[in-house]
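Lab notebook: predicted structure, single chain.

Context: the supervisor wants predicted structures on file for every construct in the current expression panel, including those that have not yet been purified. This is the next one on the list. No modifications to the sequence; it matches the entry in the shared construct table.
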Amino acid sequence: MKASILHIGVLDKSDQVHSVSFTTGVNVVTGRSSTGKSALIEIFDYCFGSSDYTIPVGVITNNAALYFVVLRLGESALVLAREPKSKRASVTEELDLSVVEDVMRLNRDYFNEVDFEPLADFKKKLRGYFGIAITDVDTDAEAVKHRRQRSSSPSIRSLTSFMLQHQNLVANKHAIFYRFDEKEKRDQVLEHLKIFLGFVDQTYFFKMQELAELKREVRRLEGMVPRREDFKERALSRLEEAFIEYRSITGDDLELTAEKAWTGPKGALKQFRQIKINLLPGSDKHAKIRQEAINARNQILASLRKEQRNLEEVRSSIQHAKDYRNTVASQKVPSEAVLSASACPFCHSLNSPVERKANELSEAIEWLNSEIGRSAYRLDSFEEHEQTISNRITEYKKQIAEYDQRIEAIDKQVLGLENLREQQELALRAKLRIEAILEDLGDKSKDDLQKQLDELKVKVKALNKLLKDQYDVASKLSVAEGKILGYMKELGSSFDFEESYLPINLHFSLETFDLCHVSKDDGQVYLRSMGSGANWLSCHLTLFLALHRYFCELGDKCAIPSIMFFDQPSQVYFPSVVDYKDEFSAAELTKGDENRKRPVDEDLEAVSRMFSTMVKYCSDTKEATGIEPQIIVTDHADNLQLEGNVTFEDLVAGRRWRKKGDGFIKIDPSTRKVEPLSIEL
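Prediction complete. Output recorded below exactly as produced.
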């Protein structure tokens, strides 16, 4: 998003305005210690809705009656304001930019006219100005009912993770993003990134909820409609048994088979109803069918007995393996053979047979340890084999039970005839059973259920296609990751990485937000494993500039403002605790630093190159995207020699606090009273 900070200001208790103004591109605020440089990032964060009041205690907090930030968004401006330690805030849109050009007009009279509202309402209102209109981000409405809590909607506070690099973060090896020390806030940023990048809208989440509901209904119907293959197997089995019963009683072979009946149950039913029962009293069909069943049963029984013997053998092997493992576990096994060479006391020659025996012993020890190590593997393989055999035994028993039922049914038919039950009656009963099964297969309600399931699956497929065609979030994130990788390669060569990491090859994951250097020798080297503060700082700078290069490329589709704060990045090179000199001196700041590994001039050159890279980056990004990012750097460094036509003085533009009394809130050295301060460009 094309955005920039125009002013960061304080209205003191005497209604005087103190402010610092900025432009797009690189802005530097430099000065001695305790002048309020680091307060700028904290004031911005506070006015941007932070729940914490972290503005450094001192002159600013002692005199502040109200803090304000003026943001430019497109052709309008937002004035954000908060009183100290307040849970209320104000956001005012100014369509006329001339109203906020003169920061002195933002006085007590101006803020008396604005409405301060609860912080929660303020943040909801503010996110609307950044185009974050999505409020329902749940992808499964039904799941919300069970957990009784909706997913957090995208917060305006998440944007600060991409903008602010505080003093304790800008060169941190354990953390890269602001607010990521809280897991909940980190997860929210990761989850909502696709929203901030403009990849999805509210319709996407509604469609995802619809998809979740359709999938849930599909699962419900699938539980009601058995899997087709299982259903077919059971249906064919029932038909086959019914046909066998009919042939056994009548002695008549039917042209209609179980397979034909399955493919068209309604037609088969109509055909079967037209068949007249034809009894063959002298037929021995029932005896043949019974004998076939007995023969098949005996074959399966033989296979069952064989597998049962195999199972006993496997179980015996398992027990032996367990006993062997327990035995060797209790034994102390040598790990090596120690050779003490013997020599002849007369000629002092070594005794080679001893050495040969020691070698043989070493080989034996190695073999034994190898065998012990394989015992667990052998046990696992035995147990897997045991399960396979057990499954086959279960299946054989099931088949034997089915043949027993078939034989029993034939025996009952013979018994029925012996009890003077007419063959006609038994045949009719068998015929009616076949008709009942065919009616069941042709049941209209089951067809409708399957049809409904098929229709739902078509809808699921269509909705998945729509989501892929219109959004395709995974593909967009992959493309974004690739572009960010390319930008990091371009930028990384300009920053100060140790020689062992060159050429720098940084990779960043948009799924996990992990950053690492990938090398052929060491593989993935994560930030926490890289040595040197210069490497950590360079990683932070490279990543953030690459991210914002991509954000600018997205233009107004992206909700993340093209603003970056870097608080005291040169501390890596000049880690002085205090700096009260009237002029910046790298030599003075590093005096007494016994841990310094290279000359001060090299560090000064690295800092100068850092600022030169930022300047070039802003210019290149504007040329490529039409948006010039805004980089605000608060630092001790001053009077650096930069590359190109831009001077360091151009970046400071009067924001230098070196003399006594200078600072964000200026103090008159003679009276120790507060003076109005407005730095304008």
